[in-house]
């Protein structure tokens, strides 16, 4: 049985493949037009291609490999999709509505091995990496959902902030980015794409060298090693000094601004002391960083953490601002559904396990 989705090929890979199989390279433009602009879901609908070419594609690829499992819609328009992969694993994808457009948060791995102490995704260790087609397909499924609604809406922004550590699945993630920014396909503006990492230092260097002009976000969450190691064990392998060196390299090499993510955890990292330390850490690159203060989404299994009080959030924000640091408090989406990354998936898996135990 063929299980390779055609969404996994970059334009160049598809053109080379078609040529290898006796078809003209320009067919690649037609196929991409059908896939990403007309957004057909069946090779038979690619009626401008000759029959030989359609048959060859049918014989060699499928279009969709993901199936819808559960969909939750929040009152603010956020939609959370739980997809089933061809091997039965479940992944999450979220569609969010902003003033500036429609953004999709994609998953890059089934589970995550980094195991940050506050995160729902790390509760289930990594089963496997997603392939590039499985990452592209998440966006295509959401786009088809919008197409079905018939309002002419288009996904305009992507955040690689779903389940998994994208820099632990580097090559597939890079192929995915190449596919979605390609002008001949979805043509998502690279400045509308943000990849978030927990700080895998050697990959930050490698990513800077790829020169793919998307935004990079670093999940920092603490301004010193002692605290960061307590909440993110990855800090043992990649301590703050090394992380800061890689951030400096990225900024120098790309001349791009970097986003720093900072979840505010009540009485853990939300004191004025930490805000001042954070300001000192970025003192010499005020123009090159933007700090996102993120309200914590409580996770049942991590009851040691609570969301910071509103006064602490505002005091933290004011301290950064007084020190001339660009920052904002992130707006939340879908708070009436299982909004934290990995929550819907881990709850659904638990539910299905309980069901099978009760049988
Ligand atoms: N693995 C990558 C990307 C996925 S996590 C990373 O860690 O950066 C995306 C973001 O969600 C990270 O900044 C992560 O720290 C944050 N996050 C994880 N669990 C959260 C929770 N319960 N509440 C708020 N943010 C959370
Ligand atoms: Fe993995 Fe990111 Fe969650 Fe950490 S925060 S466990 S790196 S998904």
Bound small molecules, deduplicated: S-adenosyl-L-homocysteine, iron/sulfur cluster
Structural class: alpha/beta
Helical content stands at 25-40%
Mean pLDDT, nearest integer? 92
- Total of helices: 12
Taking Cα atoms only, what radius of gyration do you get, to the nearest Å?
A: 21 Å
Tell how many strands the DSSP assignment holds: 12
Shape: globular
Which sequence of strands runs across the widest sheet? 1-2-3-4-7-8-9-10-11-12
The major β-sheet equals:
10 strands, mixed
- Give the low-pLDDT segments: none
Topology as H/E string? HHHEEEEEEHEHEHEHHHEHEHEH
Distance between the termini: 32 Å
Strand content: 15-25%
How would you summarize what this structure contains?
With 359 residues, the protein is an alpha/beta fold. Helices cover 38% and strands 18% of the residues.
What does this structure look like?
There is one protein chain. This protein has 359 residues and is α/β, with parallel strands linked by helices. Helix content is 38%, strand content 18%. The chain contains 12 helices and 12 strands. A 10-stranded mixed β-sheet has the order 1-2-3-4-7-8-9-10-11-12, with helices on both faces. Helix 10 links the parallel strand 10 and strand 11. Helix 1 packs across helix 2, helix 4 runs parallel beside helix 5 and helix 6 runs parallel beside helix 9. The radius of gyration is 21 Å and the shape is globular. The structure holds S-adenosyl-L-homocysteine and iron/sulfur cluster (SF4).
